[in-house]
Design brief:
The chain is α+β, with helices and mostly antiparallel strands. The chain has one domain (24-81). It has 2 helices and 5 strands. It starts with 6 loop residues before the first strand and ends in a 10-residue tail after the last helix.
Length: 82
């Protein structure tokens, strides 16, 4: 009997759906990428980003969720976008 692969979600739970896993991680990192002009290059258990100067940095998922929530409440345009 073949066991289905399990994927870790940001909240620490597991799923057998790679689509659900990708969607839940993206819901956290996409607002950060858009706001700061960075790209994501990996996740689980931290989210790994690359900036436009090719520097990388990682953020623990609970901090990333807090940043995402702050971004969702921001009404100004990011400085890099000007």
């Amino acid at each position: 009997m073949k066991t289905k692969e399990k994927f870790r979600l940001p909240n620490g739970e597991y799923t057998t759906s790679s689509k659900k896993m990708s969607k839940e991680w993206a819901s956290i990192y996409e607002p950060i990428c858009k706001h700061f002009g960075v790209t994501v290059i990996g996740y689980d258990p931290k989210i790994l980003f690359r900036d436009r100067h090719n520097h990388t940095f990682d953020i623990p998922v609970d901090i990333a969720i807090g940043i995402k929530e702050l971004i969702e409440n921001v009404t100004y345009e990011p400085a890099y976008a000007k």
